[in-house]
Amino acid sequence: MAATIKDIASRTGLGLATISSYLNGGNVREKNREKIEQAIQELNFEVNEVARGLKTNRTHTIGVVIPELNNIFCTEIITAMEDILRKKGYATIVCDCRTDKKLECEAVDFLYRKRVDGIINMPVDSTGKHLRQFAAAKKPIIIIDRKLPQLSCDSILVDNRDAARKAVDILIQSGHRRIGMITGPEDIYTAMERYQGYEAALANAGIAVDPGLVVHSDYTIRGAVAGVEHLLDEHPEVTALFAANYEMTMGTMIVLNERGISIPDQMSVIGFDNREFARALHPTLTIITQPTEAIARQAAETMLRRLEQTQSQEEGPQELYLQTEVMVGKSVRQLES
After folding, report:
1. How, if at all, do strands 141-144 and 91-96 pair?
2. Which of 255, 258, 250, 266 is nearest to 228 (CA)?
3. Distance CA 65, CA 119 (A)
4. Residues 77 and 121 sit within 8 Å (Cβ to Cβ)
5. How far is the C-alpha of 335 from the C-alpha of 278, rounded, in Å?
6. CB 143 within 8 A of CB 156
7. What does the pLDDT read at residue 69?
8. How high is the pLDDT of residue 53?
9. Which residue(s) pair with 320 in the sheet?
10. What does the DSSP assignment read for 175-240?
11. Beta-carbon count within 10 A of 281 CB
């Protein structure tokens, strides 16, 4: 015979009202939630999610749309977010749009039709048009790693200007003047911010910016390979490279390895993200590291807070900036003055 709500009450010692609140998506104390979930598992109690969703107008699912599932920055954030949301009873539906605006729009439309309670997006479309139906429905929208000025929503960001400035400052202080940068598309927020940090560091040192030393790629390994090859062919005088995301760091290292260019003797390099990759190289790579766990935690907690707020409690959109760090390796050479 199938277990009932009364069986859960008997097993946990909790009242029917508390158990009913949990089953219908209401808030219960953490210790009570744990008791109920353990009893549900032990009794093989089947929660009718469809009926619960119809009653509460909640599906307890969060949509996540990212540019590339094979991007280490994205996957680390998704993993940490899922852990936090799962503990609060929320499942996630993750969509990879392959850095394609049309696919991104289709993914968002799919999630809207699936009636997800909110959406977390690392957007490709900088206009935010693809999210308007979520905004019109007053469903929470959390943006990661980007800003969408035309859309009223929360943003979880890192200080990208400071990140690039720190990297380029290290190279300048080591005597480098011809510093190449491999960054993302000019219309992507992170790429613009990181380029501005590169530009600011050079300006502070009295070094003129040479546009020919800046490669605007597509934040992919393949794009970086093509861009770095072109940069080195056109500007063999370059003594240092700064790659402004992990995939482009990989692409940069592939080109240098295939051309037999010694690091740091013939080329100094600073990359972005993935501590394990940086440590596995010989010599170890100096990189800018982003606080992926903090980004994930802030995105998940902001989503949960928005879902729990009543209309009268709602605050305006928040922008949260997190700081990057430098992990020093042995990939930068001190030039003789």
Report:
1. unpaired
2. 255
3. 8
4. no
5. 22
6. yes
7. 87
8. 54
9. 156
10. T--SEEEEE--TTSHHHHHHHHHHHHHHHHTT----GGGEEE--SSHHHHHHHHHHHHHH-TT--E
11. 17
Q: Position of tokens 């729990």?
A: 308
Order of strands, sheet of 240-243, starting from the edge strand that comes earlier in the sequence: 214-216, 179-183, 240-243, 268-272, 286-289, 325-327
The 10 Å Cβ neighbour count of residue 109 is 12
Of residues 47 and 3, which shows the higher confidence score? 3
With beta carbons less than 8 A apart as the criterion, state whether 89 and 117 touch.
no
- DSSP class of residue 157? E
Give pLDDT tens digits for 27-78. Answer: 788 888 888 889 888 888 876 655 555 555 678 999 999 998 888 899 999 9
Higher-confidence position of 188 and 53: 188
130, 104 contact by CB (below 8 A): yes
Asked whether 93 and 61 are in contact (CB, 8 A), the reply is yes
With vertex at residue 105, the alpha carbon angle to CA 125 and CA 72, rounded to the nearest 5 degrees, is 65
Instruction: Compute how many other C-beta atoms are within 10 angstroms of the C-beta atom of residue 115.
Output: 14
Is 62:85 a contact under the CB 8 Å cutoff?
yes
- The span from the CA of 316 to the CA of 151, in Å, is 12
How large is the average pLDDT for residues 181-203? 95
- Does pLDDT of 169 surpass 70? yes
Collect all residues with Cβ–Cβ distance below 8 Å to 141 and sequence separation of at least 6: 118, 119, 121, 131, 134, 135, 151, 153, 154
Q: Which domains does the chain have, with CATH numbers?
A: 5-55 (1.10.260), 58-158+292-322 (3.40.50.2300), 160-290 (3.40.50.2300)
CB 120 within 8 A of CB 95: no
Q: Which residues contact 121 (CB under 8 A, 6 or more apart)?
A: 64, 65, 66, 108, 131, 141, 142, 143, 144
> Exposure of 146 by Cβ count < 10 A (0-12 exposed, 13-18 middle, 19+ buried)?
buried
Cα–Cα distance for residue pair 221/272, rounded to 1 Å? 13
Tell me the mean pLDDT in the region 132-153.
93
